[in-house]
Amino acid sequence: MVSTKPPSGMRDYLPEAVYKRRYVIEVIERVFQRYGFHPLETPAMEHLSTLLGKYGEEGDQLIFRILHRGERLTRALAKVHPEVADLAELGLRYDLTVPLARVVAQYGHALPRIFKRYQIQPVWRADRPAKGRFREFYQCDVDIVGTSSLLAEVEVLNAVSEVLGELGFQRFTIALNHRVLLRSMLEAAGVAAEQEEAALVAIDKLDKIGPAGVEAELRARGLSAAVATRLLAMIGGEAGTDNTERLKVLRDLLPAAPAQAALADLERLLVLTADAPAGPHLRLTPALARGLSYYTGPIFEILCEELRSSLGGGGRYDNLIGMFSGKQVPAVGFSLGLERLLLLMEAEQMFPPLRLTAQVMVCALPDTPLAPVIALATRLRRAGIRADLYPEQSRIGRQLAAADAQGIPYALIVGPDELAHQAYTLKHLRSGEQQTLDEAGLIAVLQQA
Amino acid sequence: MVSTKPPSGMRDYLPEAVYKRRYVIEVIERVFQRYGFHPLETPAMEHLSTLLGKYGEEGDQLIFRILHRGERLTRALAKVHPEVADLAELGLRYDLTVPLARVVAQYGHALPRIFKRYQIQPVWRADRPAKGRFREFYQCDVDIVGTSSLLAEVEVLNAVSEVLGELGFQRFTIALNHRVLLRSMLEAAGVAAEQEEAALVAIDKLDKIGPAGVEAELRARGLSAAVATRLLAMIGGEAGTDNTERLKVLRDLLPAAPAQAALADLERLLVLTADAPAGPHLRLTPALARGLSYYTGPIFEILCEELRSSLGGGGRYDNLIGMFSGKQVPAVGFSLGLERLLLLMEAEQMFPPLRLTAQVMVCALPDTPLAPVIALATRLRRAGIRADLYPEQSRIGRQLAAADAQGIPYALIVGPDELAHQAYTLKHLRSGEQQTLDEAGLIAVLQQA
Fold first, then answer.
1. Nearest Cα to B315, choosing from B95, B164, B152?
2. B127 interfaces chain A, CB cutoff of 8 Å
3. How many cross-chain Cβ pairs, A to B, lie less than 8 Å apart?
4. Chain A contact probe: residue of B57, B378, B439 with most A CBs at under 10 A
5. Which residues sit opposite B427 in a β-bridge?
6. Cβ of A85 under 8 Å from any chain B Cβ?
7. Which residue blocks in A35-171 are alpha helix, DSSP H?
8. Is beta strand A298-304 parallel, antiparallel or unpaired with respect to B424-428?
9. What single DSSP character describes residue B274?
10. Can you list the domains of chain A with their CATH numbers?
11. What is the mean pLDDT of chain A?
12. Surface-to-core class of residue B225, CB atoms within 10 Å of its CB (0-12 exposed, 13-18 middle, 19+ buried)
């Protein structure tokens, strides 16, 4: 017997799961469109020359490659020592940023100079599957390409905050930091170049292990007590001081021009969002490092307080979008973790009532002529009612049970008498209540269902 | 330089193309949901053991396979003569029917006994790319699994007809035939077993080459004049006689029980849809063969009259869904050709005005404090208005030009005076007309835009 499970790390979505995913995606898209972002879609496959070298060595290993076919495969396998490069030249999309960079290089002339796009599509990574980690998962990216203005950061932060708000998330924090500030802090604290990575890993854990934990970890990683103390003074305590106070501390500790400019950026972001969706959620977090080395300016990460879980992150990355064109193209973006959002919303029961079923099951009694029943179902549907039609003219108990099992609230029972008198029996399945209605009445009741 | 084109046979969808695709998909989904169908989604990848042998030898060659990684790949390449089976065990989805069959086998207990599902997802085929033929394209399938009732055919035919109607297709025909009738005709005409395939290919061209052409082709393929005459008598002329008359002719010519039963099915389908969406479009077409050998009952194909182009097809296939479970599971389905629909709608300009742009571009004049402008944009967006915010505080001419280039109808011009008086200038970009409005007035005008 062939296994009928989906491949490891991938999932089938039965209707209820699809409806939930669609609900979240629709909220995200509606908000992004209100913010003037437009959708982009790119193919599942990319040339390996587009993908390789963009995600680090580990990332390259996780790309799913497409095996050659036909003659090219035969030729490759005829070699004495065929190599991977002989076997494949296409791979599956690994993220949505590299395809965006490719699209900007390819269609730049046809796109607005400042291009606001969102993209919600699956990506594939050959990671070891684990709880909450899949090999096929959706990314949900929103980016503004083509401007260095901080208003781009503001737009992205507000759009994402509004999405979370509309999905029902109340208590979330957007940790805010700046790549240049981070670098200045390391320098000012006296972290040696070869210890920068270790220092970043340690301070990034502030939220989880607290200042004492970070200090211990810094020392364990070979940094001196003096360096650790200076770093801790800059990043502050676990709960964080308020934004204004933290700004002041950093201004005093980091007098160099690049740090002052970065702090000015951060202060401006706080001011500009004061009466906007992101404002109440932003928390200056000098310990925020974020893994990706491609950021060049402000960086953000959303933390859901109840669950100490990251819902996504982003930042400014001015050197990436231009990688295919050779021109520098400034950009800022945010990636929401769709699968994480869905897991949390499921756990916290945050879904509104979704349209999971038809509003009515049309049931024809045995010995009822079917053409007029079908015509009636057609008229209900044309009135916008989601009407299922039980496709077998079996005994009524069976039909009602099938409707009830699917959670369909009403059954419309049609027999020869009903057709003759154009008076139909509408049964509410949960309560068992029945009413007799003409067609207009039927439509009126069902449109409310 | 790396090429920035998408891989051969695949496409990038820039925003306008995405909006058009979404429009069509949304109409399809809305109608299918009104008919009580529910969405299913399955992973892009399937086990090769699931895929191979389901699409014929040629199909197997067109499956994109996923190359092993890491140690498994190293082991495979270390073999003296590695074979394809050593290199891959996963492939990309080739259609939506095999995944449906797998899902029914895997989750049968959790699904309703009669399962009405639709699925709109991309599939991948390593076909030679050509005009209108892609290697990544969407299929749009609707199926009813679990019942032999002809009402299932009726539901699928009506749903698809309603989709086409809502998309604006008026003059389309659904050619209707029956596998059993087709087989009976060949037998009754005296076509030898080894010539069946040739005969089917010839008569399937009736629409294109007319009765005389079919006769010539049948003779050219080695069928006798007597056989050709008998076949032509059954399939009728090019334009087709009316359904009732054609039924009568076939009833007389094909007295055997299986043919009579098939004709009874077809007559019933015509009767049951008489006052339903499919009715006016159904045309009994005994020459319709359809390529796929898996059909077992009624078969259908939509032909767009203006363009002599197939928009999709389907039929009953009672032996396929059970292939993984070993149980027989009756099913009927229809596959709409999404890419074909889009091409035709583009050619015939059938798209309604779509929401391709924001309704307004919020433009801050130089030297305007930005926080209140952002707050104003937030309030517009919360009133449901799609408001873009020009992210650079450049001179107004440049901002208006950018808005106009994107087709955004209005610009909202905000300077220090406007903020002080809470009276805003709304400029209609095409006409150049300006009006001064308070916030409520602004929202009222823009909500109409």
1. B152
2. no
3. 298
4. B378
5. B411, B434
6. no
7. 48-51, 56-62, 70-78, 84-87, 97-107, 150-167
8. unpaired
9. T
10. 15-44+93-347 (3.30.930.10), 46-92 (no CATH), 360-448 (3.40.50.800)
11. 93
12. exposed
Tell me the C-alpha distance between A332 and A145, whole Å: 7
**What pLDDT, in 10s, does the model give residues B109-154?**
899 999 999 999 999 999 988 887 899 999 999 999 999 999 999 9
Contact B32, B159 (CB under 8 A): yes
Of the partner residues A77, A387, A393, the one whose CB lies closest to the CB of residue B34: A387
Residue with more model confidence, B448 or A24: A24
- Measure the CA–CA gap between A273 and A288, rounded to whole angstroms: 20
B301-349 per-position pLDDT tens digit: 999 876 667 899 999 999 999 889 889 999 999 999 999 999 999 999 9
What are the Cα distances from residue B93, in Å, to A18, A126, B128?
18, 17, 17
- Let me know: does B217 contact B209? Beta carbons within 8 Å: yes
The two three-digit tokens of residue A278, written as one number: 């992101």
Interhelix angle B196-203/B179-189, rounded to 10 degrees, is 110
> Cβ A147–B276 below 8 Å, yes or no?
no
Structure tokens at A144: 């503004």
Contact B99, B92 (CB under 8 A): no
| Subunit contact B406:A102, Cβ cutoff 8 A | no
Measured from the Cβ of residue A108, the count of other Cβ atoms closer than 10 Å reads 18
The encoded tokens of residue B89 equal: 């065990």
- Using alpha carbons, list the distances in angstroms from residue A393 to A398, A409, B29: 10, 20, 27
d(CA A135, CA B290): 37
Model pTM score: 0.94
Largest CA distance in chain A: 93
Coil, strand or helix at B139: strand
Average pLDDT over residues A9-30: 97
Q: In A, residues 344-373, which contact B (CB 8 Å cutoff)?
A: 355, 358, 361, 370-372
* Adjacent-strand bridge partners of B41: A13
Tokens standing for residue A304 = 């859901």
Instruction: Compute the distance between CA of residue B286 and CA of residue B309 in angstroms, rounded to an integer.
Output: 18
Residue A87 in contact with partner chain B when CB distance is under 8 A: yes
Q: How many CA atoms lie within 13 A of B101 on its CB side?
A: 28
B129's CB contacts (< 8 A; 6+ apart) are B8, B9, B135
User: Can you say whether the dihedral through the CA atoms of A87, A88, A94, A97 is positive or negative?
Assistant: positive
